[in-house]
Design goal:
Layout: H1 10-31, E1 40-41, H2 43-50, H3 54-66, E2 70-73, E3 77-80, H4 85-106, H5 112-130, H6 134-150, H7 155-162, H8 165-175, H9 180-197, H10 201-232
Antiparallel strand pairs: 1-3, 2-3
Helix pairs in contact: 1-3, 4-6, 4-10, 5-6, 5-9, 8-10, 9-10
Length: about 230
């Protein structure tokens, strides 16, 4: 096919590009809870605030709906999805299964530079904890786990893990919201990295599962506290 013969409307390309940008803006605001769970997103006001037409916004809404971040309700509007205890359990069960399996696959084939990269991520995380930089701590936390998955060299597993990264980021923010949890999480990560370095497959797998259980406990505890706070307002 001669690509030059394709008929492409410039405004369509512009719309697609703009919808990607809008989706990213909304995505980060949902994850950071600038847009609260259950909050309605007003399409008209968003259009005015961003000074763009409404079609790219609607396309962005569809993207976010496919990611589970918003709910499109016919004749009512678009709402940020609520945080769900059931989803927390399901997501973290998948996380535990994939990460522990990835660790088992990775250790026999792990390269020294990959193990050193895990250490580098954790050293940087320690610096950010000292700086009280919550946003960067979150990013490095996700980066560490992504690296563990990539070390498996299993592309299907890597792709599957990417499908749950967004909800993990959303719930991780809740689980790590208390500074007291940062040092605990860092130590758990260091223990996992050391087990990988020592090529102790069983220990690395065990520590990975325990780390996930610790994380889900923190998330569920914070969700319960949020629910109590909400009910105490009435």
């Amino acid at each position: 096919m001669d690509i030059t013969q394709l008929k492409i409307k410039p405004d369509l390309l512009e719309s697609k590009l703009m919808s990607t940008k809008v989706a990213e803006i909304l995505r980060e605001n949902i994850i950071s809870e600038n847009l609260k769970p259950g909050e309605k997103i007003n399409e008209f006001r968003l259009s005015q605030a961003l000074n763009i037409s409404r079609p790219p916004i609607r396309e962005a809404f569809r993207t976010l709906a496919s990611e589970g971040l918003v709910l499109l309700v016919p004749r009512k509007g678009v709402y940020v999805t609520k945080l769900s205890i059931r989803e927390v359990k399901e997501i973290y069960q998948m996380k535990s299964m994939m990460e522990s399996f990835a660790t088992r696959l990775a250790i026999p084939i792990a390269e020294e530079k990959e193990v050193l990269e895990l250490d580098s991520i954790l050293n940087l995380m320690e610096e950010k904890i000292k700086e009280d930089n919550f946003k960067e701590i979150q990013k490095l936390n996700i980066k560490f786990h992504r690296k563990m998955i990539k070390m498996s060299k299993n592309q299907k597993l890597i792709n599957l893990y990417e499908s749950i990264v967004l909800p993990i980021r959303r719930y991780q923010r809740i689980g790590l919201s208390a500074p007291s949890s940062w040092e605990i999480s860092l130590k758990e990560h260091r223990d996992i990295a050391q087990a990988i370095k020592s090529k102790d497959i069983d220990l690395a797998e065990k520590l990975t599962r325990e780390h996930t259980m610790s994380a889900i406990y923190r998330v569920l505890k914070r969700l319960e506290e949020k629910e109590k706070d909400k009910n105490s307002d009435f």
